Amino acid sequence: MQIKNRQQWLIVGAVAAVALFAGNKLLLTPLASAWEARAAHITVLHRQINRGKMLVLRERGIRAHWADMQNRSLTNNPSAAEQQVFRAIDSWAQDTGVVINAITPQWKHDTDDYTTYQCRVDAAGDINRLSHFLYRVEREPLALKLESVELGARDKEGQQLSLGLQISGLMLTPQPR
């Protein structure tokens, strides 16, 4: 082999190596990463489609659950809604023998979609009556949420307890059709 011929082969080999390296960095790597990103996006889309299909299959149950929640919410008339909550509190107190010391109501207009009726209830009784009272609050079918509970002793022996509850009720704003 001649020297000139060898140099030409080395140049061709070097150019081929640089071309392969450049092709790898400029073509193959970006194409592979784009392909992986596309595959990941397709996987996400498949999950979203499957979730959508499951929601469509469960539509009747979801709509029934939503209708039930709407039926359990407080009525759209604020004074009637207050009466609903007062009747519930009175019913709990009568059934359990707890003495209601104070009820402090407050309306909060959070958004255009709903209004919250917050109510602080101060009650007194023994541990059995108060625990039954709390059970009745939790089992109430109205859309009421027990926000906080404070318990304190009213006597030295701890036989008479005081209970402070923060309850919030949900009043949904009717949506125009």
Uncertain segments are none
Shape from CA axes?
A: elongated
Helix content: 55-70%
Number of strands: 4
Secondary-structure arrangement, i.e. CATH architecture of the largest domain: 2-Layer Sandwich
CATH topology of the largest domain: Alpha-Beta Plaits
CATH domain class of the largest domain: Alpha Beta
Structural class: alpha+beta
Number of H/I helices: 4
Measured by DSSP, the beta-strand proportion falls in 15-25%
Q: Look at the structure and name the CATH superfamily of the largest domain.
A: Ribosomal protein S6/Translation elongation factor EF1B
How many structurally independent domains?
2
Strands across the major sheet, in which order? 1-2-4-3
Q: Helix and strand string, N-terminal first?
A: HHHEEHEE
Q: Taking all residues together, what is the mean pLDDT?
A: 88
Cα radius of gyration in angstroms = 35 Å
Q: Describe the biggest sheet?
A: 4 strands, antiparallel
> Termini, distance in Å?
90 Å
